[in-house]
Amino acid sequence: MLTVGDWLAHWLVSRTATAPSTVRGYAAHVRLYLAPYLGEVLLGELSVAQVQAMFAAIIRQHQALGTPVSAATLTRIRATLRAALNDAIRRGLLTENPAAKAELPRARRPRAVVWRPYRIEQWRRTGERPAVAVWTAQQTAQFLHSIEEHRLYAAYHLIALRGLRRGEAAGLRWCDIDLDGKTAVITQQLQQYDGRLAICPPKTAHSTRVIALDHTTVAALRAHRDRQRAEAGAYGPGYRTSGLVFTNLNGDPMAPDRLTRTFRALATGAGLPPVRLHDLRHGAATLALAAGVDLRVVQEMLGHSSIVLTAAIFRAACCRPRRRREGRRPHHPGGLPGPGHPAPPATAGQAQPPPGPGRCWPQPGPAAGPAVPGPRRLPDRPPPLPAPEAGVTPAPG
Question: Which of 103, 228, 247, 297 has a 20 to 30 Å separation from 170 between CA atoms?
């Protein structure tokens, strides 16, 4: 008789069209939770009560270890079991999915919290830090100014102001960048699996996108290209030309984990409150929203598949998002730096405003290379539905 453990093992090895990172998550859930608790149960006899008992046991186990399991982790474990059992239904091994009826604590998506002075004081006093935290415009400027001479300055500039994921930055190629046209195309990412680097498609279909580059970002990339060429010449014949924008000193691809470790050390050295490297991407969104950039434009910049995700995570950090006036020329107030562009000092008694994200989409002009069209702006409200044809009853809402 086929057990749940037998089916999960078969299901894992048959995942050929799933992203490697997703398969690794599935395998971890099977190894740590599903197989130990449900592996001996006959697949055809698996019940909702057994699934519910498994989750109760997982919660008790983590509480006993002093490491409470989050609602989000429980939701992901259930998602893995549901996917496996749905496949069993498609193959006629089950008639219903017990995992779909299991009740779990409601998972709440964490919202970005800005490091205001009172939060910094509390963190220094208690060590407490938010799950998702972002720097203010001034803190972001302080960080970028402090690392302006670092060889990875352009990488953190891109993540902080253009919202790239770390894998997208690590996988960015020079052939994907048009410095004259001030655009970059995100077509791949670099990920690390079992200690080996691999080029993968972007996270989702919406993550494949064109982003605009403002003049400070273009300047940072030009300076980085000159530095990279100098490093290649200094290294000698053994230098490996990979075509990637951000590499190790010998030209090899740079692991995303190294970007994270370097960022952590640089942020600590700058005397700033702690944020994750991914929070630097969050900060790009909150800075753009605070500058009045339309939410849909920010969604396109980040490559989110849903505007709901963009709003849910980032809008809480922007008290009153303002819309930019039509025809206003975008710029970078707030002291966000670029090579050769020192930050203007704030006037007495006046705080520097948050930074603008530059042009969100390039406009046709004298720059070399074809102009890249931006996304079609959706209307603020949906158009009215057409009147139904005669004799046709419209479907209920």
Answer: 297
